[in-house]
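job 3f2a | input accepted
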Amino acid sequence: MKNYVIQKGDTFSSLSRQFKLKNEGILKTYHNLHCPPEDVMQEPVPGKTILISEDPQLMADETEPQNITASSQEESVENMSESEENSTEEEPKDEKKSPEENEQQTDKEEKKDKKEDSGSSPHEGKYFVVQKGTVQCNQGFKFPKFKVTSHQKHYWNDEEGQADYLAVTEDDLQLDPAAQPFGQCKLKPTSGGYLPCAYAPAGKWQKTYEKVKVLGKSCVTEISELMCSTGGKITILKHGQQSEAGKSHVAKANTQEQQVYNPVVDFDEFKEDTKGTDELYYS
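job 3f2a | predicted structure (283 res):
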């Protein structure tokens, strides 16, 4: 076990990567299990000490697929058009300007780049959303899934190209089900309840992650929002990257790691109980 003093801007996600742990859940759970009651934390607190496991079995396996966050994908997806690639090239200097003016232009551009790089993104540690993710409306009652129509090119955390893992972009406004996706609308009360939802997106998804694009379209993360012209605000309920684990996954799971997540469960006994059943267990 090692100790680390939390710095401003640290997140469980960034710290788990820094110390090469499997994921932020391992880091958070390990600390909260071993720290004094007054040091239990739901989010990193600058100035406080966090306990870091050094158990090799809890370290990240580079061959194991991980849920993908915005901070882990700083480069744009390569599925962009040639014109979009050219648009990222450095703007040529104006030959009509004097050398001094061109130098001042370069200094301004460098300062702007440094300023943009210095600020932490609100997407830090947030997960990208896939088609099987679900959304919620603050004026609705049901939670539909996405229907990706903007592309059929990029999948998050899925090598086999299953449609459920298509990356959701700012242009993906269709939902499943398409009709009355949020059930009834609280903004339309009647004597017997509420009128059906009349989903009408007002523009594209906002607060998308502009550093990662699919075919020139910014990707949606957990903090993205979409307004409905009726008056509702639509946000992400589940990002959709969670995997479904069957009994074969349970059999291969590391007992010590699972005990960190849930110390009150005898995981070896749980493994025995799952043998001979086809029931799915959700992580």
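job 3f2a | The chain has three domains: 2-58, 68-86+101-241, 244-282.
job 3f2a | closed
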